[in-house]
Amino acid sequence: MKGNGKKIEIELTELAVSSCPLALPNKFSILGCGAVTNDDMLRILIMGKAGNGKSSVGNTILREDRFPTGEGLTPATVTTDFAYSSGLAQKFKVIDTPDLTNIGMSQSQMECEVSMWKDLTSPYPSAILHTVRCDVRYTPEEHAIYKQMKNLWGDTFSFCQRLIVGLTFKDRQKGDIDQELRTTAPKELKSVLRDAGGRYVAFNNKAQNKDWQVEQLVKLIHTMSAERSKSGFRYNIKRALLGVAFFAAVFAVACVTTDNTTAAEAFGAISFASAAGWLYYILFRSRRA
Fold it and tell me: Which residues span the membrane (predicted)?
């Protein structure tokens, strides 16, 4: 899709996402331009408690004010919205999400909304950016919201593999954030950081130059991707070895229990072909993203 950077409003009237059409907002704003199917595009889902600066972080990533922000008691984001970057070397698709626990949704509605988030980041999110304010204390109540979102996601292993903590309002934090996270931070926040493998980015939305924050985020995303590839390959090697061992054991039992040499040889050939097919599938066809 080509665009001139102007706002394009697309009415979604008949689209159903994951059989939950009622979870869709009435409109999505597609801002700028970008190809959804571009493999180089980073799909970033921003989530967190209302008032944690999710929309501001999204604007920082896109280098433009694409999402509305507010400082009042009423949250600025009440529906899921997304935007594409324009004019940047690194392409982004940023999904700005509301605090589902703060807008009166039922459990089934929240499940549908999270299902829609997955569809918007298909085939998978490059990063799930969980925003946490670093200028106020992280409370058990906020941690309960995080755990609820993680449970709604379903696949907690994949969720944590792609999780990055976005520490917001860094301009109001005077101390050493890294030191606080390792020492005096609440146990609940340390638990979130453990889920994220220690990955976090601090955002100062009032900084003159915000590019370095985005560069740090992109670097973390690429590092996560490399780690997943390595762990996925090791996982597939283990599966492959277990499969070969299984077919070898079956062949050995067949040789011992079968008097007919021809039948044993035929069974051995089948086992060998099955093992070879298993190896090919595991090592080359089923690598996890």
Answer: 240-260, 266-284
